[in-house]
Amino acid sequence: MDVPRKGAHRNRMIRRIVYTTVAVIVLSGTTYFLRQLKPAAPPVERATVWIDQVKRGPIVLQVRGLGTLVPEDILWIPAQSMGRVDKIYVRPGTEVKPDTVLLDLSNPEVELAAATAEWQLKAAQATYTDLKVKLESGRLDQEAAAARVGSEYAQAKLNADVEAKLGENGLTSDVKVKTTKAIADELLNRSRIEREKAEIAKESIQAQLAAQQVNIEKLRAEWELRKAQLALLKVRAGVNGVLQQLGALQTAPIEVGQQVPAGTILAKIAQQDKLKAELKIAETQAKDIMLGQVAQIDTRNGIIPGKVTRIDPAVINGTRTVDVKLEGALPPGAVPDLSVDGTIELARLDDVIYVGRPVFGQPNSTITLFKLEPDGREATRVQVKLGRSSVNTIEVVEGLKVGDQVILSDMTAQDAHNRIQLN
Question: 13: helix, coil or strand?
Answer without folding.
Answer: helix
